[in-house]
Amino acid sequence: MFRGRRFIFLSALVVFVAITVLSLMPPRTNLTIPTNDKVGHFIAYAVFSLNILLLGKNIMQYTVSTLLIVTYGILIEFLQSFVGRETSFYDFLANSAGVSIGIVLFLLFRKAINQILLKFNVIS
In the chain, fewer beta carbons within 10 Å around the N or the C end? Predict the structure, then answer.
């Protein structure tokens, strides 16, 4: 299926699992730590979308992948309400902004990234 791009597929899978687990883990305490988790959402979804887009081959696959990632972000936010976490529209916006940046990075650097991956025999 992803012959020659196993490393990218594995990377995308690791990010997918990490997002899912970290997003759906019940909170450990009611103590809130003053951090901006939106940055984490942004980075995670940017990396995830960039990996997924590097697996694609044409505009249809890129479009469907992007829509599925955004839908996944919505679903994760909805599911958080079932594990004692807060559903946040702002988290969804951070997720979507990350996907958008992943798309921009893909469009700007796809050829350079592929050349680097070829040079180090990561893809064939």
Answer: N
